[in-house]
Specification:
Shape: globular
CATH architecture: Beta Barrel
Largest sheet: 15 strands, antiparallel
Oligomer: single chain
Distance between the termini: 39 Å
CATH class: Mainly Beta
Radius of gyration: 18 Å
Strand content: over 45%
Number of helices: 1
CATH topology: Porin
Helix content: under 10%
CATH superfamily: monomeric porin ompg
Order of helices and strands: HEEEEEEEEEEEEEEE
């Protein structure tokens, strides 16, 4: 299956899974790794731009990472993450480009009507260099609110060689001034290999400045490192979320 047919299949699958008439409450994934089941709403735009950093034995930074999300109806969205250069800090030069990423999220359940929010979010990472390859991953997102708390869970599968499963658990708390503090544990494992689990512990916050602009920040560390891989001592982002629409 070529790239064009593969992309059409993923997008078509997302539309088939969607059911109309949902009312969406947008919780927002950034600045965390775990994605929530919310969407921006019909004809609304969400632009997430951030400075991403990773510190290990060979540290790098992405300037700036940008994700563009558009709500097609009240219950699904399309998203694109733009390719950007990595800067290797130890040598202070551009090294490679990240791969563009695109997908469609469909919210099938909304806790405003059902007990829990639930979405499916198939995505594809497109190669732009010879040494890169197509990556497909299909996460399922769940979320439930309890007063000012929200608890989210993401479970997914990377279709790679080798294949990878991943799982994120996030807890957030909203203060009366709209500040939200969040913490998460994110795990991934190569299915065919033992001692191949990567574990990340991450903390962040999100603070709206007005109806259109939100500041966000996160900082995390790697708590489980697979054999023969470098540990990420510190990673995170500092960024802005821009909301536009009707």
């Amino acid at each position: 299956m070529n790239l064009h047919k593969l992309l059409i299949f993923i997008l078509f699958s997302g539309f088939v899974l969607c059911s109309p008439g949902k009312i969406i409450a947008q919780g927002g994934g950034p600045p965390m790794i775990t994605t929530d089941p919310g969407t921006p709403g019909k004809n609304h735009w969400e632009i997430n731009t951030s400075l991403n950093y990773h510190f290990s034995n060979q540290s790098d930074i992405q300037i700036p990472a940008t994700e563009i999300v558009y709500g097609i109806g009240n219950h699904y969205q399309i998203s694109v993450q733009l390719p950007l250069p990595d800067v290797e800090l130890s040598k202070s030069h551009f090294t490679t480009f990240t791969q563009p990423q695109m997908g469609i999220k469909c919210q099938l359940l909304d806790e405003q009507k059902q007990f829990v929010s639930f979405s499916v979010y198939p995505q594809i990472i497109v190669p732009i260099q010879k040494e890169q390859s197509i990556q497909i991953f299909i996460p399922l997102e769940f979320e439930k609110s309890f007063n000012n708390f929200r608890i989210g869970e993401e479970i997914g599968y990377f279709i790679l060689d080798p294949n990878i499963i991943f799982n994120g658990t996030i807890v957030g708390y909203h203060f009366n001034n709209d500040l939200e503090l969040m913490g998460e544990i994110y795990l991934s494992k190569i299915i065919s290999q033992s001692q191949s689990t990567t574990g990340l512990l991450n903390f962040g916050f999100r603070k709206p400045f007005n109806n259109h602009l939100t500041g966000m920040c996160s900082i995390g560390t790697e708590i489980m490192t697979p054999n023969n891989e470098e540990k990420q001592y510190l990673f995170g982002l500092v960024g802005l979320q821009i909301l536009l629409g009707e």
